[in-house]
């Protein structure tokens, strides 16, 4: 029996009052993607970790070894392996 594949850890770096961070959080929640949120407004440790990644701002998504800077829904969905959201009218 082969071992189960490891799930990629997903981390969302956010800050207070950031509307794009709110949208990013909503995308992950609606897609039911488990994630850890690190708010740099509350944690200097999170802020230092974000700085080490080379980020200049938030939101930042870290999914496994993939880093995405800024909220770009199409790129985030692709990196997370989510189907493109289709408009239904």
Sum this structure up briefly.
This protein is of the alpha+beta class and 89 residues long. It has helices at residues 19-30, 44-52, 73-80; strands at residues 10-14, 36-39, 60-63, 66-69.
Description:
- The protein is α+β, with helices and mostly antiparallel strands.
- The chain has a single domain, classed as Glutaredoxin.
- It has helices at residues 19-30, 44-52, 73-80, and strands at 10-14, 36-39, 60-63, 66-69.
- The longest helix has 12 residues, at 19-30.
- The radius of gyration is 14 Å and the shape is globular.
Number of helical segments with 4 or more residues: 3
> Whole-number average pLDDT?
89
Specify the structural class. alpha+beta
Note the run of SSEs as H and E. Answer: EHEHEEH
Shape: globular
Largest sheet: 4 strands, mixed
Descriptive key words:
alpha+beta, 3 helices, Glutaredoxin, four-stranded mixed sheet, 33% helix, single chain
Give the SSE layout.
Elements: E1 10-14, H1 19-30, E2 36-39, H2 44-52, E3 60-63, E4 66-69, H3 73-80
Parallel strand pairs: 1-2
Antiparallel strand pairs: 1-3, 3-4
């Amino acid at each position: 029996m082969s071992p189960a594949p490891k799930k990629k850890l997903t981390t969302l770096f956010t800050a207070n009052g950031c509307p794009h961070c709110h949208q990013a959080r909503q995308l992950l929640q609606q897609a039911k993607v488990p994630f850890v949120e690190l708010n740099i407004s509350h944690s200097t440790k999170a802020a230092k970790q974000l700085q080490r990644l080379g980020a200049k701002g938030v939101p930042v998504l870290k999914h496994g070894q993939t880093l995405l800077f800024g909220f770009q829904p199409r790129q985030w969905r692709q990196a997370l392996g989510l189907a493109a959201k289709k408009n239904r009218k």
